[in-house]
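To the team - adenosine-5'-diphosphate complex, inputs and output below.
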Amino acid sequence: MTLRTLESLGDLQGKNVVVRCDLNVPLKDGVITDDGRVRASLPTLNALIHAGARVVVVSHLGRPDGEPDSKYSLAPVAQRLSELLGKPVVFATDTVGSAAKDAVDELDDGDIALLENLRFNAHETSKDDSDRRDFAKKLAKFGDAFVSDGFGVVHRKQASVYELAEELPSAAGLLIQQELEVLERLTVSPEKPYTVVLGGSKVSDKLSVIDALLPKVDSLLVGGGMVFTFLYALGHKVGGSLLESDQVDTVKGYLVKAKELGVTIVLPTDIVVASRFGDDAEYVVTAADAIESSAFGANGMGLDIGPDTAASFAAAIMTSKTVFWNGPMGVFELPPFAAGTRAVAAALTEFDGFGVVGGGDSAAAVRALGFRDDQFGHISTGGGASLEFLEGKRLPGLEVLGWQA
Ligand code: ADP
Ligand code: MG
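Output:
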């Protein structure tokens, strides 16, 4: 079985179509700092509008506690979506309540509405199947058909991703289709040398990826917050840097396995160490095995890879033919700690091969640092989802649409 696509839904003129997008954009003080995920949703939404469907968009934003929380309202996203589509987007202030019902009832052919944050309802992400099923049934009332296009959430068994796809005739949207075409280039005979660059802060989430990727890659460059668990595993003290003590043995295992498989794990040789977390913090560059010997002693926090490491990572990328990168090399949001991320991004735009950037923060980072999307082979909207795809895991949100790896 292969992925069901939009055509499988037939003529959508006058039909209500619920669309699950991933509009989970970064916000600062209510302002969208990177609208990449909104833009990525446009092709499917435009296709449905042009087909004359009555489009009902649903999405999550952030991680609210299963109840309404104005901090996580999708209202700013509705406005941005309207600007990008060049047409009004009706915003409903609840998800399955009377506001949503009214908004949906008022739609004409080719109109579009966005419902409030799915995760204001605890049942969206409930571990209990029947909770999710209940919520999906409520959402299903708004549609004659369902289009799943939130690639960033296809690895999650959540009501609007999984159960809703079972409740209505369902198909994948254009974004999911495009993401899969690109990612398959990385799993089905990627051109060698194949390098994976990992960083970021979701350390325990991402460590398991290493296990699955080791047999597939030629080298693995490790930066960002997860570096310190590696350095610690090698016997070095890491001061106040991000450390997952309970993962140290696992990491030791990866180092042994990499050696057996002939895969190079490249770790930083130097680190930017700061006195504290802040863009006006004092900082110094130290050897990676001597973090606590810096002026800040045991309080020093590693917040970026150092300049020698940045140069060697860039050089490794330049000699690769396929590169997948997930996770910033440092705390790029603070200018003093953005250089490592910038160096990796620059190398990805220059090397002679196919380079993919995956992950919400990684995508936001390259844009914030002034790079353009078209300088990369592909910028994936999904971090966790793209990693799990590369690992060869089963993704519930794709399987329910007919996909089999
Ligand atoms: P993505 O969203 O691309 O998958 P993550 O969510 O895993 O990436 O991580 C992104 C975050 O990692 C950024 O906010 C960045 O500040 C943080 N980060 C990177 N390096 C470090 C570090 N050395 N210490 C603490 N946080 C870090
Ligand atoms: Mg992130």
